[in-house]
Amino acid sequence: MTAHSELKLYIDGEWIGAGKRRVHRVVNPATGGALGDLPLVDATDLDRALHAADRAFRQWKRSTTEERARVLKGAAQLIRQRVDHIARVATLEEGKTLTETRLEALVTANLFEFYAEECRRTYGRVLVRPTGTRSLVVKEPVGPVAAFAPWNFPIGNPGRKLGAPVAAGCSVILKPAEEAPASAIEVVRALVDAGLPAGVVQLVFGVPDEVSRHLLASPIIRKLSFTGSTAVGKHLLALAASTVKRTTMELGGHAPVIVFDDADLTRTVELLAASKCRNAGQVCVSPTRFYVQQGIYERFAAAFTERLRKVNVGDGLVETTQMGPMANPRRPAAMERLIADAVACGSKLRTGGERQGKEGFFWQPTVLADVPASARIMSEEPFGPVAVLTPFSTFEEAVEHANRLPYGLAAYAFTESAKRAMLIGDAIEAGMVGINTVGMAAADSPFGGVKESGHGAEDGPEGLDACLVTKAIHQA
After folding, report:
1. Of the four, 79, 123, 149, 460, which is 20 to 30 A from 160 by CA?
2. Measured torsion, CA atoms of residues 217, 222, 226, 229, in degrees rounded to the nearest 10
3. How far apart are the C-alpha atoms of 464 and 461, rounded to whole Å?
4. DSSP3 helix / strand / coil % (the chain, rounded to 5)
5. Which CATH number covers residue 302?
6. Burial class (CB in 10 A: 0-12, 13-18, 19+), 358
């Protein structure tokens, strides 16, 4: 039996097969062939998940930090032991390379281990009061969480949605993406095998609008955690508002990259090329809008184009592959539309711009140069392996370009000037800024955006705090 022949729901401690339920066909993006059929929940399943989450929360919130840490550390150990299996499962259904999925699994294990320790530090405080009276400020778990995770990080996104709530003492109903379900199943299986009590985590798959409306209408759910597009995020925020649920929203981005003329050109090109092709550009913090200072613009464009031409595109299961396919047929279609529009607006296609091969959803790494602001791709996130380049002259012009859009998730800048690095870090409107680095995520660092890229954060102490509520207790 393979992971994809055993696709199941997990509700109230029970793994549940398709039975008479509707199913979703899961495909391999490298071939377009079927991997398996995923059962989809109905209203009865969701009601059962809600009741289980409600019951389990009342018990789990009273668990000790030692109990929570034991489960999370145990799950981390199991993920490390199973890393090759989990990586292969994720590559089969999402497409990214085995190198990437192995790393994603290990990062998830690290995150669980971080929260196993961090849950011991949910400190409150004692306020200064006259003798005979006392005022305390304490933190408590917010309650059952409805969590929605996208397909682009099929191991890491479920891990993010589960680590902090479980550590905080919450129960979770997790709905990952139907395109890549087996990876999420493996993450939940690690928690279950590590001793997580029944009902603390439910794993459901279904028609997204049906599931979100059902869960968010319930008073049992106290918090919404969502990673995905800004448009869907706004819709879910409206649903959550009817019962005033707490929310953490990690929404769309369109990351600007500012390359100043004093940047280390060789190192900058190498870092950005690798980051641009990571997961075929299907990363919310992927560098996309490249603003390059005029003095080095042509040299950068030539070097970057040459570097992307050398990327080995192929099946992610092949160890020599450097970039796998896009995850679903929607992505190449979107790339075709945006690139055609950019060329029509006067952009120069330096390399790529086409599908690759006759099977699967492969796309050539693409560079568009001299892209005008009027091109759709300068305002709409392509979510694919395309870099759009345009020159700038002054610091102020670069900042204006970078902050032009309503998004503010991630941004990058490259310079050898310490003063300029400090100034650009302050001037950029983004939740995360990388200066001479493309590294954005770490277990101990908050991950989230500003403006229409969302609010709140995952990872770090901030991710745990987002699953807690504050209570003041005054006693006389």
Report:
1. 123
2. 50
3. 5
4. 40, 20, 35
5. 3.40.309.10
6. exposed
> What is residue 197's DSSP assignment?
P
Compute the half-sphere exposure of residue 319: CA atoms within 13 Å on the CB side of its CA. Answer: 1
Ramachandran category for residue 370: left, alpha or beta (phi over 0 → left; psi -120 to 50 → alpha) = left
d(CA 9, CA 22): 12
Q: Where do we find the tokens 């259904």?
A: 93
Element (H, E) at 181: helix 181-193
Whether 383 maps to a domain, the answer reads: yes
Largest CA distance in the chain: 79
- CATH number for the domain spanning 173: value is 3.40.605.10
* Same-domain pairing of 188 and 279: no
Q: Are residues 246 and 264 in the same domain?
A: no
Question: What is the spatial distance between Cα 79 and Cα 68, in angstroms, rounded to a whole number?
Answer: 17
Angle ∠(103,361,441) on CA atoms, nearest 5: 25
Q: Are residues 372 and 401 in the same domain?
A: yes
- Beta-strand ranges (E) seen in 242-324 are 246-250, 256-259, 289-293
Same domain assignment for residues 244 and 264:
no
- Torsion angle in degrees (nearest 10) through CA of 475, 61, 226, 38: -160
Q: Is residue 235 part of a domain?
A: yes
Q: How far apart are CA 411 and CA 430, in angstroms?
A: 6
Helix or strand or coil: residue 352? coil
Domain that holds residue 113: 3-251+453-475
Predicted model pTM: 0.96
Q: Are residues 7 and 101 in the same domain?
A: yes
In sign, the C-alpha dihedral spanning 23, 26, 32, 34 is negative
Whether residue 333 is found in the same domain as residue 423: yes
Torsion angles phi and psi, residue 347, rounded to 5: -70, 155
Please tell me whether residues 129 and 201 are part of one structural domain.
Answer: yes
Structural domain count of the chain: 2
Question: Does residue 448 sit within a domain?
Answer: no
Exposure pattern of 260-283 as b/e (b: 16+ CB <10 Å)? bbebebeebbebbbebbbbbbbbb
77 domain-assigned: yes
Q: Is the pLDDT reported for residue 1 higher than 80?
A: no
Report the pLDDT value the prediction gives residue 2, as an integer from 0 to 100.
82
pLDDT digits 0-9 by tens, 43-95: 999 999 999 999 999 999 999 999 999 999 999 999 999 999 999 999 999 99
Residue with tokens 């031409």: 309
Catalytic residues: 250, 284
